[in-house]
Amino acid sequence: MLSLFKIRFRSKWGLLVAYIFIQAPLIFSAEPIPIELKDVGIEEHLGTQISLDRSFLNEENKKVFLKDFFHQKRPIVLTLVYYRCPNLCHFLLDGFTEVLKKLSWTAGTEFDIVTISIDPTETAALSLEKKKHRLEVYGRNQAEKGWHFLTGEESAIQALAREVGFQYRYDPDQKQYAHAAGIFILTPEGKISRYLYGISFRPLDLKLALLEAAQGKIGNVVDKFLLFCYHYDPKGRKYSIFARNLMSFAGLITVCLVIIMLIVLSKKKMWFR
Questions:
Q1: Distance between CA atoms of 205 and 193, rounded to whole angstroms?
Q2: Considering only CA atoms, which of 95, 72, 75 is closest in space to residue 219?
């Protein structure tokens, strides 16, 4: 009995020692998250109503409220960047502008864009400079009244960032902000509808996100059909074909065609009589 206990005891300790030796390289090789990136990222707050009474400064250095940019039918694309950013913000705005150019819809007509600097030291003059450059790249005159570049006080910026789940940190050594890349799609009422991540976006994803946020109030029949066929895949972070809806629609079309065929055949029989 004692020998059996020793065998079991040794086997358990043997398994424990083996587990430690296997896991140790993984534990010690895992690099800790740099302090600059701690608490940096995007936490989704889908359905959250942002405060529209929060004030900022526009490109003309005039006080404006977020509610000034939210209309009854048009959704909003919100981007949080900073205008002196040497890297990520520049790439994000480049990628965003490129996908805007591929859309048949135009900012200021079917939707609006609000770009806000997360750096409270940046000025309206700088936001005006950035707006002129972006509109020149965008190349659509209608967008002048539909793409807004704002600056604001730190308290207002941080409060808005918390509402949308945008977590960023200032690195005093690098004199830069550490932040994630993504855009926020909001409903005309100011509720967070969708997050799109990265520095480049598929035109279809942006179009469907805007159509979804507007609840079908923008776009034509074909656009609304696309929304019927696609759904957002949170794992892949993109829209993919929703087979069930597509099959249901195909089934409905088939039934309609059969009914039409039966009507035509019945009329032919009546004609021959």
A1: 13
A2: 75
